[in-house]
Design a protein that fits this description.
Length: 289
């Protein structure tokens, strides 16, 4: 296998590269600002030229503008990168006649608290520009190239970089007051576990839509509480607030938990989110990150 990865320096891209390397797979990356590879997913011809030169056997499309508040402030840029960038990735995969994995988001859905987790064939109804741009990326891929895996996931965390987990720990260490919302539900997901699941999925030819998240769901508040409790800071208080108390440019869906039905039918399931997060936090504490 020779995998081309977009968004190679991102949270998920790094996990995929590490696991592909362990398996002895060849990897080529499309990274903005890289010394050798300049194209951006928005530059279709350069993206195509690079792919023709590198001859990947699969395209793992992880690049996105993931700043959801930025996407709300600049929706045209969100569309350019997330929707049109995915259209370009689909054209590249179709031109090379290779399968593509497109990583999409829980934010294509908008539900109410108390709803059942969304299944793969539920109808998306994005609430905000980020969710809309990810959904339009899915639509473009479906229209252009059938050999696709659309993998929706949520609340990714990874060692290094900017993450909710590290933000909570940094705030606790600095003694800053913590306020976290109780009316936003999804599933924290470890990039390492998602990468393993994606690499299992691409061994199949079972193209389609998948919800790959750690098992279960929680509120943002419960996510934050779990992080502090695991790290020995049970005494640190977190003020429970509502989304309305935390004005931001983007409105996250109240409920966007995903049910992994399709992956489980292929034997691909992730652990409960608490187990994965506890292991991740233990590694962070031991400085293994
Ligand atoms: N993070 C989450 O909680 C979450 C949840 C659900 C779904 N997802 C989806 O999962 C995928 C991976 O997310 P992630 O958390 O790994 O994202 P990330 O850490 O924000 O990384 C995104 C990567 O995409 C690159 N990128 C952005 N615009 C680009 C462009 N125009 N051309 C080429 N590369 C570009 C970025 O490069 P620069 O560093 O140069 O900007 C970065 O390396 C994304 O598709 C995201 O929408 C993420």
């Amino acid at each position: 296998m020779r995998a081309m990865i977009t968004g190679a320096k991102g949270r998920l891209g790094r996990a995929l590269i590490a696991q592909l390397a362990e398996r002895g797979a060849e990897v080529c990356c499309l990274e903005r600002k890289a010394a050798r590879h300049h194209p951006d997913v928005c530059q279709r011809q350069a993206f195509l030229d690079l792919a023709r030169q590198e001859r990947p056997t699969i395209l793992l499309h992880c690049a996105a503008w993931t700043d959801v508040d930025g996407c709300a402030r600049q929706p045209e840029r969100a569309m350019r990168v997330n929707a049109n960038g995915t259209r370009n990735a689909a054209i590249v995969a179709a031109t090379l006649q290779i399968p593509i994995v497109y990583v999409s988001s829980n934010e294509v859905f908008s539900g109410q608290l108390g709803d059942a987790p969304f299944q793969e064939d539920d109808r998306p109804q994005p609430l905000n520009p980020y969710g809309r741009s990810k959904w339009l990326g899915e639509e473009a891929l479906r229209e252009i190239w059938p050999l696709h895996f659309i993998v929706r996931t949520s609340w990714l965390y990874a060692h290094g970089g900017r993450n909710f987990t590290q933000s909570m720990l940094q705030a606790a260490r600095a003694g800053r007051p913590l306020r976290v919302v109780t009316d936003e539900v999804a599933t924290p997901t470890a990039t390492t576990e998602l990468a393993t699941a994606i690499l299992a999925l691409i061994q199949t030819e079972a193209y389609g839509i998948y919800h790959l998240v750690n098992e279960g769901s929680c509120t943002r508040f419960e996510f934050a509480r779990f992080i502090l409790d695991q790290c020995g800071w049970a005494e640190i208080e977190i003020e429970p607030i509502l989304r309305a108390d935390w004005p931001r440019a983007s409105t996250p869906p109240a409920f966007s938990a995903l049910a992994n039905q399709a992956g489980k039918r292929l034997g691909i399931a992730l652990r409960p989110w608490q187990e994965a997060l506890a292991d991740f936090l233990a590694q962070e504490e031991r400085g293994l990150a």
